[in-house]
Amino acid sequence: MKQTRRKKTSIDWEEQAYKRKDEKYVLRLYVTGQTPKSVRAIANIKAICEEYLKGRYDLQVIDIYQRPALAQDEQILAAPTLIKKLPLPLRRLVGDLSKTEHVLLGLDLREK
């Protein structure tokens, strides 16, 4: 019997989104001091989290100038960098996070 792969439909995506509605997101944003790009990234991710993840996210902002060991452990090569630790899979987004749709895709909150 031949097995066929079923293409994900919007119904499948909605079911997955519904299952994830209670999942807690663990995010780390690595920035470089109070540069304009860092300030924008912080404001952008806070706005996105409040709109799409209200009450179910933990956001930690880490200044790599103050805590270089953490940045080294995470192999941060550019800043700002957002790391989605949970739910899996782990994802990294680089930049000021101003492209909301791109961030939502990276956080698995939107279908590709």
Written account of the structure:
The protein has four helices and four strands; from the N terminus they run αβαβαββα. The protein is α+β, with helices and mostly antiparallel strands. The chain has one domain (23-106): Glutaredoxin, CATH 3.40.30.10. It has a four-stranded mixed sheet. Helix 2 (36-52) links the parallel strand 1 and strand 2. The model has no long low-confidence stretch (mean pLDDT 88).
Give me the secondary-structure topology.
Layout lengths: L9 H11 L4 E7 L4 H17 L4 E7 L4 H6 L7 E6 L4 E4 L5 H7 L6
Parallel strand pairs: 1-2
Antiparallel strand pairs: 1-3, 3-4
> Based on the structure given, which CATH architecture is correct?
3-Layer(aba) Sandwich
Low-pLDDT segments, ≥5 res:
none
* Ends apart, CA distance between termini: 31 Å
Give the beta-strand count: 4
The profile of the biggest β sheet is: 4 strands, mixed
**Within the CATH hierarchy, at the fold level, what is the topology?**
Glutaredoxin
The amount of helix comes to 25-40%
CATH hierarchy, class: Alpha Beta
H and E order? HEHEHEEH
Number of domains: 1
The percent range for strand residues is 15-25%
From the helix content, strand content and strand pairing, which structural class follows?
Answer: alpha+beta
Write down the overall geometry: globular
Sequence of strands across the biggest β-sheet:
2-1-3-4
Overall pLDDT: 88
Q: Please give the radius of gyration in angstroms.
A: 16 Å
